[in-house]
Amino acid sequence: MKLFTVGPVEMYRETLDLSGKQLPYFRTSEFSEMMLESEMMLKRFVNAQNSSKVIFLTASGTGAMEATVMNCFTEFDRLLIISGGGFGERFEKICNIHKIPFDTVKIPFGERLTEDMLSEYDGKGYAGLLVNLDETSTGQLYDKNIISAFCKRNGTLFVADAISSFLADELDMCKWNIDVVIISSQKALALSPGLSIVIVSDRMFNDRISNVDSGSLYFDFKEHIENQKRGQTPFTPAVGVLIELHEMLKSLESKGIDVKIAETKAQCEHFRTVAKESGLIIPSYPLSNAVTPIMFPEGNAIEVFETLRCDYDITVTPSGGALKKIMLRVGHMGNLTRDDNDQLISALKEIVR
Ligand SMILES: *Cc1c(COP(=O)(O)O)cnc(C)c1O
User: Fold this and answer.
1) Are 255 and 163 in contact (CB under 8 A)?
2) What is the 3-state secondary structure (H, E, C) of 49-73?
3) I want to staple 178 with a disulfide (CB 3.0 to 4.6 A). Which of 155, 173, 292, 295 is the partner?
4) Ligand 1: residues within 6 Å at CB?
């Protein structure tokens, strides 16, 4: 079976070999040392300030999104949410549940985020802007330059859900003045699900996290940050996934993070070129290297998904909501090759014919 999904994705041999092993006890100096090394490598990979903080949460990505909102903002703030699909809507739901006021920049399907859409919200005193850098439900990659400039001129904290964009697209906390980066284990890191990572800037820590009452025991960032000073977590973490993470980060470090992103980009561009040559329809808004949406205007996307899975042993990613019948998404994260792309496209050609 081949997974062209957006998580869990096709895992690497090295990770699979690790995941079958007996787990160690974790309140030890060896485990702490591993955690501190992982923290340093993660900071380097997203070009975070040295003094920024890294929080390891045993939760899926949504848990980290919710924890970030709970620890960084209060009902006395107003937030701006860029909402162009299912994950933007998830930020809206989180703010509703936690009674944090917000406005949304709604991006209808097929349109792209523009400078003008954002500048309408200038001067309104937003404490923070929440965005999914790659809105994975449509594959749109938002322009970080536009968002960063908006946050800068409005004194707004920049919260980036980079869960599907990390390792697929360029990401640099210093260059774009990003205050929070959220990452999860089951996307391009190609690890088991269950671990999410939040990297926060000095500014976010000092101005916000230190002063905000998270209202949560399990998800309290202050506790996590205090414990991570010695390479520990407040509660039992996903020990196995943290071990997988450490190995993966070391291998990424020796490869070079730019090389990894270039590889994902090449895998994705190869797919898009061959797909277009084969007559498949790809939307025209800017796309992340993590995933390619393919349109099925005749409304047979679910049938194509099932045929690929049952007859070809290939799993792509179905869509939800209004796009369910007309769009499939092809992931480029994890252990995939050009041969895999070719096999998927030849299968798609057979099915569509
Ligand atoms: C996958 C993903 C998430 C997290 O979803 P979970 O199912 O909670 O892991 C969040 N945001 C984006 C943009 C994602 O792609």
Assistant:
1) no
2) CCCCEEEEEECCHHHHHHHHHHHHC
3) 173
4) 6-7, 60-62, 87, 132, 136, 161, 163-164, 184
Asked whether the beta carbons of 294 and 312 are under 8 A apart, the reply is no
Which of ligand 1's atoms lies nearest the C-alpha of 62? 8
pLDDT digits (tens, 9 = 90+) for 295-337: 999 999 999 999 999 999 999 999 999 999 999 999 999 999 9
Closest ligand 1 atom number to CA of residue 137: 15
Determine the Cα–Cα distance for residues 66 and 152; give it in Å rounded to an integer: 24
Query: pTM of this prediction?
Result: 0.97
Cα separation, 312 vs 145, in Å, equals: 41
Say if CB 343 and CB 314 are below 8 A apart. Answer: yes
Residue 250, H or E segment: helix 239-255
Rounded to the nearest 5 degrees, what angle is found at the Cα of 347, between the Cα atoms of 344 and 352?
120
Please, are residues 104 and 126 in contact by the beta-carbon 8 Å criterion? no
Closest-CA residue to 109 (of 304, 295, 236, 345): 295
* Gap between the Cα atoms of 99 and 74, Å rounded: 8
Residue 260 burial class via C-beta count within 10 angstroms: exposed 0-12, middle 13-18, buried 19 and up? middle
Q: At 159, list the tokens.
A: 């919260």
> Phi and psi (nearest 5°) for 179?
-95, -30
